[in-house]
Amino acid sequence: MSSVAPIARIALGVPLRRLFDYRAPAGEALTPEDVGRRARVVFGKRVCIGVIAALTDSSEIPGEQLKPIEAVLRDTPPLPPDWFRLAEFCAAYYQTPLGEVMLSTLPTGLRRVDPPKPRAARHAPPPSVAMAAPPLTGEQRQALTHIAAGAPGFRAYLLYGVTGSGKTEIYLRLIERTLAAGRSALLLVPEINLTPQLEARLTARFPDAGLVSLHSDLAEAARTRHWKTALTGRARIVLGTRLAVFTPMPDLGLIVVDEEHDASFKQQDGMRYSARDVAVFRARERNAPIVLGSATPSLESWANAVDPRTPARYTLLTLAQRAVAGARLPAVRCIDTRAEKLCDGFSGALFAAIEQRLARGEQSLVFLNRRGYAPVLACVQCGWISHCPRCAANLVLHLADRRLRCHHCGFEKRVPRACPTCGNQDIQPFGRGTQRLEAVLTERFPEARILRVDRDSARSRRQWEALLSRIHAGEADILVGTQMLAKGHDFPKLTLVGALGADSALFAADWRAPERLFAQLMQVAGRAGRADLPGEVLIQTQFPEHPLYAALVRHDYPAFAAAQLEERRRAGFPPYAYQAMLRAEAPRMAEAIAFLATARAWPGAAAHAGVTLYDPVPMRLSRMANLERAQLLAESPSRRALQAFLGEWNGALESIRTPAKLRWHLEVDPLEL
Ligand code: ADP
Ligand code: ZN
Ligand code: ZN
């Protein structure tokens, strides 16, 4: 045993669930301060960067076979122990190798073997004077008093505040307190380009806090620099998107997650984590308060706040009024489209409303809801929907082989020729595209300047910004768009929102669709109108009495949430069940299904009571060229039971022999089914 050259156990970004042992670099000793530092090593035939996770005296690998570390990188302070605990939690919870977790959360610049020369920041921050805080509204004061009255330490708050209620001011006051106590704050937002004012506002209020932002639009060098500033504790405020939840911050004393319901907090490849959930874990681990803010909280968070049956209790804080005196929420109305023949999807009332805005020089937005919806068959005559007879989900239409399939449990059958209830032969899938709507509007309003905003017209960030500035400059009378337009933008002349295709979410195969629809329509509604130009939201629907719309008209999120949670509870869906999705893709569907079938037949599953494995199902669309995708759902009413199962199952899956081109992954708490 040698005390001079201990062995380093190093985490590497490779898909193996283990650490790798290396000797100290030639002629150098490793000290405990090196734990948490990056190291350059040779792995197989390539040189790569790893993180020293521990030092040890002994290794299973004989000493002469141990390779030396090429260099210990001491350009940054070591990553702190709480960062390791965060990575370990994620590795266990999301079934991802620790090394992959650690390396994937470091800025690219620090994972490079040959990093470019670091440059100093080009601009010194201008000396600025702190901007004064506005006097609080009564509701804001109450919410803050409530938080201040709580015992110090971890506590999760759900700040439910209608759009414009002044949630940001609450965040700012909490940050102020945190800084005054000598600690730092982490503020997470769904997309940074939606909140350009936020960064300016934070800097104006806290000019000495050394605020840095961290998001994927930053140049690599800037991102690395900002991250290092956070690690050294010089940045007292970090503002960032989902990956920023992993920023090491020595004195972290507050986490805020704004728009906590937003799906952007979910990472959709690699380690499929929820930044919101990781943030809650981190706050608990740091014994710091966390505030989750939203006008339409996720039902998971809402249940945590209001449902006494859920174990993790959040404290609910409510802001029911708009902060600016006189500002009112827009009027929401339903247009009953059963009563009339639509003109290419538009009702007469919506056309008339648009015409009125054109005459007044105001903007209209035609919002088409079509986010990732799988088509479900429906009968307009009697309201029949293709329900799954085996579970609470709806069957999805697969046109290619004319079949209806349940993406939840795997049930399938042939597409019926007529409505099974009333015999109507004209049963149709829901759905309609933005391009078509644009064409219809152009024909109807030839004088109007019409701008279409969707994934096709705003492919790149530059195109998107160009579109936004045209809208702001008032260069459009009518906007046609999808959910891209729903978020965060303030268009001062926008006073009318018409929502089309909303009904498809009521009967979507994805049972989370109503939750998304409600959030989107509330958010879209939040875009319309200001104090002096009141806004109006018109929803075209064949189901004007539907409770979802009734709640929307009253701006009553709590009522909507209560009804949804009751449905979820009855159906045994999250948040009353916990899920993991095993997905496989392969050149042929049969291969993907065969892999999933083997996974399902794992004998060890019998030892895990309370975990249900459903049948493998083909996914509706194979996105990747020439790859067919299928999935299998694992579900349990107990998170702990599911986690215990997944830990063992994942190990078993790794030993299944698969065809060369088959890929699979496991997603815990999937949002998209
Ligand atoms: P939210 O994030 O809840 O939608 P914001 O924080 O953006 O709302 O606030 C909405 C508007 O109200 C902003 O223009 C903000 O400046 C203003 N505001 C917030 N708090 C106050 C206050 N206490 N007094 C006056 N105006 C306020
Ligand atoms: Zn089913
Ligand atoms: Zn029918």
Describe this structure in words.
The chain is α/β, with parallel strands linked by helices. The protein has four domains: 7-80 and 99-105, GIY-YIG endonuclease (3-Layer(aba) Sandwich); 138-319, Rossmann fold, CATH 3.40.50.300; 331-371 and 433-567, P-loop containing nucleotide triphosphate hydrolases (Rossmann fold, 3-Layer(aba) Sandwich), CATH 3.40.50; 578-668, Alpha-Beta Plaits (2-Layer Sandwich). Helix content is 29%, strand content 21%. It has 17 helices and 28 strands. The protein has a seven-stranded parallel β-sheet with strand order 8-9-7-10-11-6-12, with helices on both faces. A six-stranded parallel β-sheet has the order 13-23-22-14-21-20, with helices on both faces. The protein has a five-stranded antiparallel β-sheet with strand order 2-1-4-3-5. β8 (212-214), α6 (220-231) and β9 (237-240) form a beta-alpha-beta unit. The longest helix has 16 residues, at 639-654. The mean pLDDT is 88. Bound molecules: adenosine-5'-diphosphate and zinc ion (2 copies). The site of one zinc ion (ZN) has 8 residues, from loops.
Stated plainly, the CATH topology of the largest domain is called: Rossmann fold
Mean pLDDT comes to: 88
Q: Quick one: CATH superfamily of the largest domain?
A: P-loop containing nucleotide triphosphate hydrolases
Structural class from helices and strands? alpha/beta
Helical segment tally? 17
- The CATH architecture category of the largest domain equals 3-Layer(aba) Sandwich
> What percent strand?
15-25%
Per DSSP E runs of 2 or more residues, the count of β-strands stands at: 28
**Rg computed from alpha carbons, rounded to a whole number of angstroms:** 27 Å
CATH class category name of the largest domain: Alpha Beta
Helix content: 25-40%
The major sheet is characterized as: 7 strands, parallel
- Overall 3D shape: globular
Bound molecules: adenosine-5'-diphosphate, zinc ion
Our measurement of the CA-to-CA distance between the termini, rounded to an integer number of angstroms, reads 53 Å
Widest β-sheet, arrangement of strands: 8-9-7-10-11-6-12
The low-confidence parts are none
